[in-house]
Amino acid sequence: MKPSRLSLRNRLLLTVLLPVALLLAALVSASIVRGERMTERAIAERGLAIVSFLAPAAEYGVISGSSDIIDNVLGALRSQGDVAAAVLYDRDGGLLAQRGEPRILDVAQVRRTGAAVSLSEGLGRKGFAAPVRSMALVVDELNTSPGQEPEGVAPVGWVYVEIDIGGHEAERRMAQSLTIGMAFLTLFITTILALRLANSVGEPVARLAQAVRRMAAGELDVQVPDTTGGEELRALERGFNSMARSIANAHKNLQSRIDEATEQLAHQALHDPLTGLPNRRAFERALEETVAASRRAGDRGALCFVDLDHFKYVNDSAGHAAGDALLRAVADIFRQRLRGEDFVCRIGGDEFALILRGCAREDARRVAEGMCKAIADLRFEWGGREFRIGASIGFVMIDGRVTTVAEVLREADHACYSVKRDGRGQVAEYSVLAAGGA
Ligand SMILES: Nc1nc2c(ncn2[C@@H]2O[C@H](COP(=O)(O)OP(=O)(O)OP(=O)(O)O)[C@@H](O)[C@H]2O)c(=O)[nH]1
């Protein structure tokens, strides 16, 4: 089905109001047409009844020519308020008596009538005529039954009556106005009820649709008021609110787990899982920053390479787990002895690097020697045995003399190598001369 562009509220209004409006229009039209017909028929029946009553009543007066009788007959019409005019003719069409002023009288037409008939209509009136016959002649000569027109017997006169149809028309118009008024009242009440229905259903549904759109756009804490009149819609609103709360909570939990996992990953990416110290990647970044700072602002610092001595022996004789524990113990020594601004990391195997920031050559040597002694003094116990190791430390000053990270690394490595070569367990600074001689 094609989706409608109209809102649910407007569709509900249309569904209720359109059929009602069409039905009322049809009812009003039918009622008006029927009212007109009934009025016409009522006027015709009344006019014909009056002339049918008048003709036999006037028979004797017409035949006798008695003006008293004729006046009496016409006088009987006084009580008929809608009879505007009445005229009595003799057999030759001569005027016998008249009451009121006829407006649409056509005498020739009246004289042609052989039975009670309705004639022309106009100027707010309708004319009726009936022949006056001698009942004695009719019964004797034609033997007609009552009510049957004795066509072969010549009338002895005619009666003509004009009915004022204004009153009947006014009544009809009044009835029409009433019908139209009732129709409008019905439409008005239906519109109010339809509006209430459309609002009570359409507005909550529109609010729900809007809330769903906001949720789809990422606004998860959206809620709708659950105070709608209808029980079913209220259940729907409560269901939506509880579903939205569940989704928001699930999203919050998921987000905090993602944040936790991201933090862990970020930590793992820059830390050594065994000792918890920063790893080689973190070291490279830190060294780049230190070298750049010395280049830029002349900051002084030192890089120390530490390679443990005879570590392999511990591994080989007490096992890898012992080696791991020893590496952790060495890491603790570094942590305890270094200042907050310094940096220590495990760059791999039994090798560590220290970046000492803002320190002079003598300070660097002192710190390195202190580390060397602390590691040499370490009594590592494992499996009831005690192990002693040492550390060979080579250092290089970062003081603007060397300008690249690669150069600093190479020189520190060279210094450490020279210590290993010269018997281990000592501290040596990189020397250009010694390196040249190596
Ligand atoms: N337990 C343990 N051993 C490691 C780890 N990484 C490297 N190793 C071992 O550390 C040792 C390092 O080798 P070397 O530096 O030659 O050993 P060393 O006995 O210290 O030798 P020197 O430096 O010449 O004194 C090797 O046996 C590696 O297998 C680790 O994460 N855990």
Automatic annotation (TrEMBL):
GO biological process: cell adhesion involved in single-species biofilm formation; negative regulation of bacterial-type flagellum-dependent cell motility; signal transduction
E.C. no: 2.7.7.65
One term under GO cellular component: plasma membrane
GO molecular function annotations of the record: diguanylate cyclase activity
Enzyme class: transferase
Domain GGDEF, chain residue ranges per copy: 299-432
All copies of domain HAMP, residue ranges: 199-252
InterPro entries: Diguanylate_Cyclase, GGDEF_dom, HAMP_dom, Nucleotide_cyclase, Rev_trsase/Diguanyl_cyclase
Classification via Pfam families: GGDEF, HAMP
Reactions catalysed, as given in the entry: 2 GTP = 3',3'-c-di-GMP + 2 diphosphate
Protein's UniProt name: diguanylate cyclase
Organism: Thauera terpenica 58Eu
Lineage: Bacteria, Pseudomonadati, Pseudomonadota, Betaproteobacteria, Rhodocyclales
